[in-house]
Amino acid sequence: MGGWGLARQMAAMRTKRSFASHLFAAKTLWLSRVMMRVLAHFSVFIFLTAISQLGGLAWLLAIFFRHRAIVFVSTYIVLSASALWIAPMFGREPLPCLSNETLEMRSVFYCALNRQYLVPELKSVLKDYSAKMEGAFPGTKTLVLDANFPFFSGFPLLPHISHDDGRKVDLAYYYESDQVYLPGVTRSPIGYFAFENGPTDCPDNVFTLRWDLAWLQTIWPDYQLERMRMKAALQLLAEDNRVGKIFIEPHLKLRFGFDSDKIRFQGCRAARHDDHIHIQL
Ligand SMILES: [Zn+2]
């Protein structure tokens, strides 16, 4: 074979090799793009499931459609509306979201995320309690914050790790302004994170759920806790035999001058309870 023939052969081999390496690079790029998309969808699935339980399922279906947003929203609405009928068959009942009654969810935000479900016994505790509050203080509205998801025991309603069995619920505080009770009103729009500061033995630690959110505190309106209703709330809840535990910060228990062995401190690693009352069966 002459010199030209050898050169042609080598050039052909180089072309083949470069074609193979281009093919490999293209395949790697395609694979990494697929992996990124799977990871992105998985993250969205986890996030939507964590905040609403049913959102992840709606997303899983929607990713197979071109008009993803429309399919997601409509599937989510259908699933959430179905849960209102199906969850009671599995032992959890929804609380009313929009009503003119003495008991309702603080915000439609909770219902939009399927966070308003309870076992029937706790629902009747709340109904009885809100009726007694209304009886003692006419015009009182009892507002409910996070409750539980519609399905499955052991599925926590984050960030409330214990709200996983339908037997726990958070209630908003009662507020006043210029010594006038404010029905249906809380300092923050969702009822949480407007803290009543007071002495605490908990150390400063960033690795807990005991958030202070100091940067948020200045934006809330300057409403005060309505002392009479707050004290009556603790008393009525503690007197109910169906209620097992009530969590509120110790400095508030002292402020309202009511104690019971059911009223406990949740500990320094859990969320602060000087923005809401936690009760459980
Ligand atoms: Zn709670």
Précis, in short:
By secondary structure, this protein is of the alpha+beta class. Helices cover 44% and strands 11% of the residues. It contains eight helices and eleven strands.
Explain this structure to me?
By secondary structure, the chain is α+β, with helices and mostly antiparallel strands. It folds into 2 domains: 3-77; 93-280, Muramoyl-pentapeptide Carboxypeptidase, domain 2, CATH 3.30.1380. Helix content is 44%, strand content 11%. The chain contains 8 helices and 11 strands. It has helices at 3-52, 55-62, 68-86, 108-112, 120-136, 214-217, 227-239, 250-256; strands spanning 93-94, 103-105, 117-118, 142-144, 168-172, 175-177, 180-181, 224-225, 245-247, 263-264, 276-280. The strands form 4 sheets. Strands 5-11-9-10 form a 4-stranded mixed β-sheet, covered by helices on one side. Bound molecules: zinc ion.
Observed structural traits:
281 residues; alpha+beta; Muramoyl-pentapeptide Carboxypeptidase, domain 2; 4-stranded mixed β-sheet; 3-stranded antiparallel β-sheet; 8 helices; binds zinc ion
Q: What topology emerges from the helices and strands here?
A:
Blueprint: H1 3-52, H2 55-62, H3 68-86, E1 93-94, E2 103-105, H4 108-112, E3 117-118, H5 120-136, E4 142-144, E5 168-172, E6 175-177, E7 180-181, H6 214-217, E8 224-225, H7 227-239, E9 245-247, H8 250-256, E10 263-264, E11 276-280
Parallel strand pairs: 2-4, 9-10
Antiparallel strand pairs: 1-3, 5-11, 6-7, 6-8, 9-11
This protein binds zinc ion.
Residues 160, 163, 168, 170, 278 line the site of zinc ion.
